[in-house]
Amino acid sequence: xxxxxxxxxxATVTVAPTVVADDRGGDAPPAPELATIDPDRYRxxxxxxxxxxxxxxxxxxxxxxxxxxxxELITSTPSLRSxxxxxxxxxxxxxxxxxxxxxxxxxxxxxxxxxAMRLVHGRSLDQCLALAPSLAGRLALLANVIAVADAVAYxxxxxxIHRDLKPRNVIVGEFGETVVIDWGLAKDLDGDxxxxxxxxxVVGETVAGSVLGTPRxxxxxxxxxxxxxxxxxxxxxxxxxxxxxxxxxxxxxxxAESTLDAVRAGPPDPVNRRERHLPPDLVAIVERAxxxxxxxxxxxxxxxxxxLRRFQTGQLVGAYRYSRVELIRRWIGRHRAVVAAAxxxxxxxxxxxxxxxxxxxxxxxxxxxxxxxxxxxxGEADDMVGFVVSDLANQLDDVGRIDxxxxxxxxxxxxxDRVASRGEPVGIGAVIxxxxxxxxLAVKGKLAPAIAELRSALTGVQPAGASLDxxxxxxxxxxxxxxxxxxxxDAAAALxxxxxxxxxxxxxxxxxxxxxxxxFGDGFSHTRIGIVLEQTGDLPGALVEYTAALRSYxxxxxxxxxxxxxxxxxxxxxxxxxxxxxxxxxxxxxxASYAAAVASARTVVAGSPNPRRRWELIFAMAKLATAxxxxxxxxxxxxxxxxxxxxxxxxVASDPSNKQWQRxxxxxxxxxxxxxxxxxxRDEAIALFxxxxxxxxxxxxxxxxxxxxxxxxxxxxxRIGEQxxxxxELATARDSFEANLAIYxxxxxxxPSNADHVEAIAIxxxxxxxxxxxxxxxxxxxxxxRAMLDLMMSLGxxxPSNxxxxxxxxxxxxxxxxxxxxxxxFADALAAYGLANVIRTSLVAASPANPELKRALxxxxxxxxxVQRQVGQGAAAAASLxxxxxxxxxxxxxxxxxxxxxxxxxxxxxxxPARIFH
Length: 918
Prior knowledge:
Blueprint: E1 2-3, E2 11-12, E3 35-36, E4 42-50, E5 54-61, E6 66-73, H1 78-93, E7 102-107, E8 113-118, E9 122-124, H2 125-130, H3 135-139, H4 142-157, E10 160-161, E11 170-173, E12 178-180, E13 187-188, H5 220-223, H6 230-246, H7 256-265, H8 271-274, H9 280-289, H10 301-312, H11 324-330, H12 346-369, H13 374-398, H14 406-421, H15 428-443, H16 447-459, H17 468-487, H18 491-509, H19 516-535, H20 539-559, H21 564-583, H22 587-606, H23 611-630, H24 634-654, H25 659-678, H26 682-702, H27 707-726, H28 730-750, H29 755-774, H30 778-798, H31 803-822, H32 826-846, H33 851-870, H34 874-889, H35 897-910, H36 913-916
Parallel strand pairs: 3-7
Antiparallel strand pairs: 1-2, 4-5, 5-6, 6-8, 7-8, 9-11, 10-13, 11-12
Helix pairs in contact: 4-6, 4-10, 6-9, 9-10, 12-13, 12-14, 13-14, 13-15, 14-15, 15-16, 15-17, 16-17, 17-18, 17-19, 18-19, 19-20, 19-21, 20-21, 21-22, 21-23, 22-23, 23-24, 23-25, 24-25, 25-26, 26-27, 27-28, 28-29, 29-30, 30-31, 31-32, 31-33, 32-33, 33-34, 34-35
């Protein structure tokens, strides 16, 4: 048999044949007959991977309109066909989220079997391990090992064992999902097993013949060719866990024959000898799962899955005997600091806050009363409080549940207040307690008390330059306080706080250039300054800040490749640079920045259990989809949007109480609805708009005075109003637009510096102008058009570099000109059209590859020609028509059928002088 291992030549291993009898007995039901399938159903085939026996390719399923993976045989013999068909049918029986889904199994007209399965986008577990060289990075994959155990437990309950579990057969998806693949060696414990014969080739690292499996992860009884049961898979799960913890497989011989000999000879090196900083109870789980005697292992996949979950949630592990000291320390959970706290439950946090901190305060009071023990008790109490407000809070932040730290942080603040009331020093712990409490309050929308807590924290920080730890805290307090103040609408105060944070971070970086927290503070402060500048209309200033943030985050990630906040910051900066590029009319630049942001966000998601990171990826994808739509790639944008909504719906379903997730989903539904409108799918768009509006109204009902939620409702209602306008339901549209106008004016009055609010008023005036036009009320239409123009010109004066707003200003000039022409005020109309023409000419010069700008400028020339014709300027009208035609002809490959029809109309007009010289 042939065994191929990564980085080594192919080796030959001879194993004495052994007939494996089914020791369970029983008659298996007859296998279903595979139907013949037309190969034309699966188009656009693309090779994906290939082993010794089978090959996998991707294809587009024409009937269901999705990409799938297709597995088929390379070498065909009767025994291989039987084994392959059995693999397809066994896999199809296993309907579990972490087991690859079989969509169809059949035969091609040639008789060769195949099966189509779900195409999983992601990396294999061995690739994830290669990208996570540190223990902390590998421990983040513990949740994936638990998912493997859950999948295997499900299979065991259906009397099926895998027999070839290894990192290469585990896929970690782009959104953290885990899928076990390649059930080619699976065995039905209630059916007949197909022993491999001499015609069975090697599949990757899997040894064929009577020894089935991969030597590095194979239990000793399987290596000896003996019958295998559920405990063989348990051993392999233990070997997977060994690899995750040690960073290398249990056995690492170069030749497969040597690996088999090593497995038969004895156990591998203890995992805690290869990695010394492991929790002892996790080591005990590995040792029990990989016991030499199957009777000493966990009995099934369910048993080891439950044991791993007990470890992850901080419960006692059955495989480990705890000392009394460890049992006392476990309730603090200090040795869990290196493990992602993805499964920390609110019940545990509540118990810790109500019982643990109260106990701390009691012990602290006792320490004061018993002077001879005071130093010991003071140290223990301070250490325990430090855990609550620092270690625990950081773990909760990592999994997106910083809100759960509110009660523990309140107890910690009380503790430090009591210590301070005795005149004793409290140190930096009090600062952190106030900051964590402020963060938890802000997440819950309680901005005023959150700001108060951060200001209290600032009073306890030492003067700048006195202590590096205190300066780190000062930097973070300034930029977090700036965020909260900005949410209250005080952009000037926020900008001052961000600049203070930036100045101190840069001053400290001069002395400590490799400090990750200082580097993050530098990048984050630049980003926040850029956001304020962008919102107040200073696009060039925002570009400078985002570029500086990108440099800072890039330096942080290069020095610390697995720094989650650094990677998230990098993705955010790339996305914001895309926003600037798009606002300046640079569609290609926006596409490149958005694609980079999506790639960075995917990296963050792969290494973080924090659901907030998944939302950041979803919104990075949303920006990319918008840019794809603007560049003409409508189908790619629509596919991406639909995927995002599906992912967001899954997130909301996982925690229906999370109001922020509901709001985020409502935002995505609007984005996808906008794309559907542009593609002409209006019914789908209206359904999405209505769902978004219903969610936003429900959230507003919970907080009726919240202006931000009022704005959310207005945005969704505007989309419904636009569709009503298109359908001729003018009264409904007017009610919607006028209600929205009142909301936007309230928001603008609250924060006059925010250009987005002013732009929202201008856009709504434009909608009212369109409605008045449909009602043939030229006077009202002109009034709304002029209101829109005045607002857009004020925004243009704030930031002349914002080409998106310049385009809106040109549109407003055009609307004014059209209504002036309707009133036969031709001289004024020509002047207004001329202003629109000047702006659009400059936009085309700035973005010559943008076809939409050329089309708009061509229509300007055509409209000017019509007014010139009305006033008898025939020669000028002809010149304007020729200018319009040149622009349409210059579209080249970007021209579509409507462009060609328009060009034909223009040529026909130029060919008929009577039409021009009227």
